[in-house]
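INSTRUCTION: Work out how this chain folds

Fields: amino acid sequence; protein backbone structure tokens

Chain under study, with its fold:
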Amino acid sequence: MPPFSAVVVTHDSAPELGALLDSIDRFLDPRPQVIVVDAASSDATLAVAKGRAELVALDRNPGFGAASNQGAARASEDVIVLLNPDVTLLDSGLGVLANRGRSRPALLAPRLLNPDGSVQRSAHPLPGRAGTLLPALVHPRLMPRSLRLRAEPWRSDTLRAVGWATGACIAARTDLLRELGPFDPGQFLFYEDMDLCLRARAAGVGTELHPDVRLRHAGAHSTGPAFGGEPYDLLATRRREVVRGHLGGRALAIDDLGEALTFTTRAAGRMLLRREASVERSRLAALLKARGGP
């Protein structure tokens, strides 16, 4: 298969980047063009990248989207794969995904696995649609399989169109991504992937889950330490900005309701089972705060 360009944005990502580059060397032949855009790391990330990737060393952190765009501008192959540094390849599937991107006018996402091998919630339905309210009230495990896959498309075992996908790994034609940005450079962090997929949708470009291609994804390797945990307030604010900006006020109202119902019912269920529900309560509080509620 022909090579592709891999764009990796790093920030204090030395161990993760090393593991990613090792897995690329092990599984991909020919080796892709690897472009590492480092957003002012203070650890050994630059040393890890040196000699193993085309390195763009920034003197400040402009945000994930702006840094990704700089990498995409340097791509020399006809397909770009946007990769987080905390992704590792399990086989040669990434090359397969990139090759499919040459003939598909879409954003292609693989199945992402957690470090323990479980499937990650990395593909999502379109936000702000009435159909998203049902799984907020009825746990998807209790639904027929067809409805469950609409609510949780990340569970699909076959190629599936989705509303948006986690940006840890997205493949597409280089010209297509450059037309899209790929990212909005004005947004510093969070929900850039939803924003990208919704902008692509508006341009007639869909997002696809290709579950036969699998990669391991650790998640939050740099944002967790930077924010001292999950920044629920910022996440809630950013999600609302993206949904409103692309889908309008009605969709935002439905999405807010769906999120609120989900957090409330899940917290209640966990409490009935005498399980910890602090995450669900924190996310609900962050949503109410973002809406200007109590």
